[in-house]
Amino acid sequence: MFEMLKRLMETDGISGDESEVRDLIMKEIRKHVDEVTVDSIGNLIAHKKGDTPRVMLTAHMDEIGLMVKGVDSDGAIIFSRVGGIESLTLIGQRVKIKAGKEPVYGVITTAEISNGDMTDSMPRSLDMYIDTGLSKEELLKKDVKVGSFISLQQEIGMFADNSVVYGRALDDRIGCYVLMEIAKLSKKTESDTYYVFTVQEEIGLYGAKTSTYKIKPDLAVAVDVTNAEDKGVKIQSNILGKGPCITLKDSGMITNRCINDWLTDIAKQKNIPIQYDVGDKGTTDALSISLSREGVPATVVGIAVRNIHSTIGMASMKDVENAIKLLEEFIKNPPKVCIT
Questions:
Q1: Angle of CA points 86, 304, 286, to nearest 5°
Q2: Are residues 237 and 117 in the same domain?
Q3: Are 226 and 291 found together in one domain?
Q4: Which among 78, 112, 118, 340 is least surrounded, fewest beta carbons within 10 Å?
């Protein structure tokens, strides 16, 4: 299980540059579905044919990252954030700049840190730059230019007796992995099922918007990550290892109660641990899906991740396994009663 997830996490796929992730998923999933297509915005749509209802499961391929904004005369690379990455986690991070024939590597720093000065205030991303050890002329020769994508380089591995995975891009390669496993396990389904791997979720939920319009699903579930609130808080929620989280509310939507109740019933019948997520920050592809055409009943199954939207996250493999079990049963017996 871990090896496939690791391959997904290792593959660069910043919003707007998801092709390498898409190619990897396509290679693995095409033997488990009837049809695979890529739409004009870059979404990967894997279709397993069946009867009604038409069910759409989504996970976004893109990850947060950076983009080259300019190169100073001394070779310092100024960057812009792609997605909501936490600035305080960037200092000292090793990065890979997508350039010409070969990538260029560097480290994020500030003038104060580079000069050995101590600072009492937290630097903003606007005050940071990337040091590659190369001059401006050398960088230009290597085709580092405005618009080049910059990915965060982090070790990926397991700890806590191999029960916790850590690394970059858990958001949302975990969701991609869950969908791939369900497609593999679901040999025969009642529903007409679409596994949709979307683009540009981190900057505006764009891939979900166009793919939903095309597919016209009767029901949808977005598989994403959610913020673990199980350390340093008075009331714990979204606890690692306690099961996937069914989102009831986030900052953008109230999810479909009928689908949530159906998932809850499945969990009870199959003894699958679940949690409920009432969030105040962030939203998912489910928002765009729910507002397509005349509206689509939609919800979110989330995997709790610590240090979400930072350079390195942590998640429980037990939660991943239970999300797969839950959604595999959902596909076998989708809730026709929830179709409006």
A1: 85
A2: no
A3: yes
A4: 118
Q: What's the one-letter identity of residue 259?
A: I
Burial of 264 (0-12, 13-18, 19+ CB in 10 A): middle
**How does DSSP classify residue 204?**
T
Q: Is 165 left (phi over 0), alpha (psi -120 to 50) or beta?
A: beta
DSSP strands (E only) in 174-288: 191-198, 219-227, 245-249, 275-278
Please enumerate in sequence order all residues whose Cβ is within 8 A of that of 158, keeping only pairs 6 or more positions apart, or say none.
2, 164, 165, 166, 317
Place of tokens 């992995």: 177
Look up the pTM and report it.
0.93
Q: Identify whether 201 is a catalytic site residue.
A: yes
Q: Does the pLDDT value for residue 42 go beyond 80?
A: yes
Q: Say yes or no: 177 and 137 in one domain.
A: no
Residue 158 falls inside a structural domain: no
pLDDT of residue 226: 93
Residue 134 sits in a domain whose CATH number is 2.40.30.40
Pairing of strands 219-227, 51-60: parallel
| 327 is a domain residue | yes
Condensed to tens digits (0 to 9), the pLDDT of residues 222-239 reads: 999 998 977 777 677 788
